[in-house]
Amino acid sequence: MFERIREDIQCVFERDPAARTTFEVFTTYPGLHAVLAHRLNHRLWQFGLKWLARVFSTMARWITGVEIHPGAKIGRRFFIDHGMGVVIGETAEIGDDCTLYHGVTLGGTSWKRGKRHPTLGNNVIVGAGAKVLGPVTLGRGARVGSNAVVVKDVPPDTTVVGIPGRLVRRASEEGDARRRAIAEKMGFDAYGTTQDMPDPVAHAINCMLDHIHAMDIQMDKMRNSINELGGSVSEVPLPDLDTQEIKAALPEESPNSR
Predict the structure, then answer these.
(1) pLDDT reported for residue 1
(2) CA 127 to CA 223: how far, in whole Å?
(3) What b/e readout covers 150-170, taking b as 16+ CB neighbours within 10 angstroms?
(4) Residue 218 above 50 pLDDT?
(5) Would the pTM of this model clear 0.85, i.e. be above it?
(6) Least buried of 92, 139, 140, 232, by fewest C-beta within 10 Å?
(7) Are residue 61 and residue 116 in the same domain, yes or no?
C-alpha cells in the first residue's frame, strides 16, 4: 500500500514541472487526493461494502472535484492533473502510467448493466475536456486531444483529435519528403505537413498531396508511352499557387495541437 502511495506521488514530479516538494504534492494536489481516496474506496467495494464505498467516494468528490466510481479499476502511477471536473464511470478500466487532465469524462452511452465505460491501456494521455464514451478501448500509448469526443476504439500509439474523434497517425519520413517535393513543385508552402502536427486539416492536405503524386506518376507514364509511339507531348510547367490566399482560408495552428 505504501509503495503504491510513493509511486502515485513520484509520478506527479515526473509529469508536472510545477511540483516542488513531496509535502506540497501530498497536501495540495486534488488529483492525487482523488486517486488515494479511490484506492481505499475500491477495496471497500471489492469487500462488498458498496454503500460505504459510495459515501466515501461522494465525500472525495466534494473535496477534490473529481468523481471516480469505486467500482472503476485503476492501475499504477495514475495522474490526474488539476483534477476539477474529471468523471470516471463504474466499469472504466485504466492501465498503468496513464494521465488525465481536467474536465475529462470516461463515461457510458447506455443504461444497460455490464461493461459500458472505456478501457485505457498503459501510458494513455487524455487531454483537457475530452470525452471518451462507451465500452471503447484506447490502445497502449494512445493520445486524445483536448475537447475531443471518442466513441470508437483507438489503436496503440495513435493520436485522436476533433468531434467526433479522428485518428491522426505519424507519417513516415519517406512520405513527408515526397509531400514536400510535390508541394515545392506546385509552388505551395504546404500547410500542416509538420510531422508532429495532429491536425485533421493537415491530414486532408497530406492525402491530397499523395493523390497528386500518384497522378503525376500516371501522367509521366502516359506521356512517355505517347512519345515512344511517335507522338509529341511536352511537359507543361505548373502554375504557382497563391499561398497567402490558401493560408488565410485555413484555421490557425493551435499550440495545443502539438
Answers:
(1) 66
(2) 50
(3) beebbeeebbbbbeebbbbee
(4) yes
(5) no
(6) 232
(7) yes
| Structural domains in the chain (count) | 2
Q: How confident is the model at residue 232 (pLDDT cuts 50, 70, 90)?
A: confident
Cα–Cα distance between 56 and 132 in angstroms, integer?
A: 25
Cell 496513464 belongs to residue: 98
Tens-place pLDDT, residues 53-92: 999 999 999 999 999 999 999 998 899 988 888 999 999 9
Question: Following DSSP, what letter does each residue of 120-174 receive, concatenated?
Answer: E-TT-EE-TT-EEESS-EEPTT-EE-TT-EE-S-B-TT-EEETTTTEEEPPPPHH
Task: Check whether residue 140 and residue 244 sit in a common domain.
Answer: no
Do residues 101 and 132 make contact, with C-beta atoms less than 8 angstroms apart? no
Q: Amino acid letter at 66? A: V
Domain of 31, in residue numbers: 2-168
**63, 96 contact by CB (below 8 A):** no
